[in-house]
Amino acid sequence: MSHCLEVLTRSFGGPCSILLVLGDFGSGKTLMMKQFLADEPHLWKACKVIPRDMDATESFGKPGPLREHKAFLYSTDEKTALMMDDAQNLDIDELLFLLRQTGLDGGERQMDQLVFFAEASLLQQMDELSEILPEDHVVDQVFMPRLSRIEAETYILKRLDSVEFKSSKVFSTAELDWIYDESGGYPGGINEMAARIFNQKTKDGGKLASFFKHFF
Questions:
Q1: Quick one: 22 and 128 in the same domain?
Q2: Are residues 46 and 63 in the same domain?
Q3: Which of 24, 84, 155, 194 can pair with 71 through a Cys bridge, CB separation 3.0 to 4.6 Å?
Q4: What is the pLDDT of residue 180?
Q5: Could you tell me if 163 and 124 lie in one domain?
Q6: β-pairing, 80-84 with 44-49?
Q7: Greatest extent of the chain over all pairs of C-alpha atoms, in Å
Q8: Can you tell me the distance from the alpha carbon of 77 to that of 71, in angstroms, rounded to the nearest whole number?
Q9: Residue 39 has pLDDT above 80, yes or no
Q10: What distances in angstroms separate CA 63 from CA 20, 55, 100, one per listed residue?
Q11: What span, in angstroms and rounded, lies between the C-alpha atoms of 111 and 106?
């Protein structure tokens, strides 16, 4: 995970105008985005965008109601960038609108870089718009890795420590092995398996068990 963050940081500082961070559901994309934002929190501002410009282009899909999407804006004298999680939920017209913000297809350049955290299905939408991407256009892709067994354990214990719970007494080594094997090494699955075991251990703990099930 730390190596992936290093690759993401290098790509963000590079020449690409589109940076894709790709992974399956539960692979830790949102966690990675939060870690990346935490490096320079003063430079990123939470915002909402409505990515649709139906007057400027013929629709690739069916026109629909305008939708807001949560995003983060990075703005310095040297660079302007927009970051969005779950970008696979963009429809084709919304994606086209955002791509045009980087100067593609005759759009007015307002963004130096778009950073999309998304499932791989976003690539299918990108393919549909491939004709507007010039051959020399730089698109970087970063793929979410599977956590190692040690990284998975560290991930679990840090989450418990963050709420000042005595993490060393929660899971045995065998249970941590099971969590890792069943989850496939991805944070989403780790959360689910860890919550399942914790809930069984504390099923008589009432609100405490419910809290940790939600926490994981």
A1: yes
A2: yes
A3: 84
A4: 94
A5: no
A6: unpaired
A7: 63
A8: 20
A9: yes
A10: 26, 11, 18
A11: 14
